């Protein structure tokens, strides 16, 4: 019997038992859909993280208080990074094009009967250029505001919209931690960064933040971090080296650093490693359903061999060889697994598209993931189909006919 005849018979047998065939394919459908969806969502998360880091500003480095070992040992980050460090970097690091000092805290913000607990950022004028923010209305923090400890505030787009809607907020006053601040500007929408909404924030002069809301550390006006924009991408390694040496001299460090210097690439690499690991783990968990689907195919094929004993005996009696019977059942197993794989692929791609439609994630369907999932499902069907196929091929025709 040629391959075409075996294929026709296999298709006819499977279509004669539509419900059984559909239920058998269900494991493969779920497995393929899960694997493709998990890989697509993971790659979308990596792409989103990359875009968000690029939105922080071009060629940006971040200096934060506390060395890596100190951060691992305790949650109490030392307050040793101060505004004087930022000034020194601006003056003494030739690779730095701009330096922005920043102190973050979360405080209640009140306007009339409306209130919100939002991020309060003590900033300097350089924040706009270093972090690539733009002003939509009014202005940002100025040098005069810093020198005079002015109680002025520039609102993020979402915070301004929540309090004022379509009304122009310039000149209005809000209360931050029960202290009045005059609104002088509104920033353009920037979007979220790793789950934190950058537009739900209020920006006040760094000096006002320290003197009015948070106080100082024993070392001076302490910072949450310093953002530095390098002159160009090629200058980033030099800037990182120069900043590290400068701060080690200023802090009189002879052992472990009490600060951490990271580039966008460093942080993105860490995030990429985490998301890649999570994607691989989720895909591996989803792939278990492929194994379950393969076991289901084997079980159904074994039942099919038992039910079709008389058919096998009759075909052998009229001249079908063991290889013909083997091919018949192998083709049926492969059709079940391949059909389940194709349907699962369609479902998985549809799932990725739906996730992209309702979340910030981009729809990414990797051809390699589709090929891998369909190939694995076909291989699993072939592998698990061997046992029942060989069992059918080994049946003695006389015994098979007698047992019918």
Automatic annotation (TrEMBL):
Principal subcellular localization:
membrane
Per the UniProt record, which residue ranges are transmembrane?
Answer: 21-42, 280-305, 325-358, 364-387
Q: What membrane topology does this protein have?
A: Multi-pass membrane protein
Q: Which domain of life is it from?
A: Bacteria
Pinpoint the MacB-like periplasmic core domain residues: 21-245
Q: Give residue ranges for domain ABC3 transporter permease C-terminal.
A: 284-397
One function term, GO molecular function aspect: transmembrane transporter activity
Q: Which UniProt keywords apply?
A: Cell membrane, Membrane, Transmembrane, Transmembrane helix
Cellular compartments annotated: Cell membrane
Q: Name one Pfam family in it.
A: MacB_PCD
InterPro entries according to UniProt: ABC3_permease_C, MacB_PCD, Macrolide_Exporter_MacB
- Tell me which GO cellular component terms the UniProt record holds: plasma membrane
User: Which protein family is it in?
Assistant: Belongs to the ABC-4 integral membrane protein family.
PANTHER family annotated for this entry? Answer: ABC TRANSPORTER PERMEASE YTRF (PTHR30572:SF4), MEMBRANE COMPONENT OF TRANSPORTER-RELATED (PTHR30572)
This one is known as: ABC transporter permease protein
User: Organism source for this protein?
Assistant: Leptolyngbya boryana NIES-2135
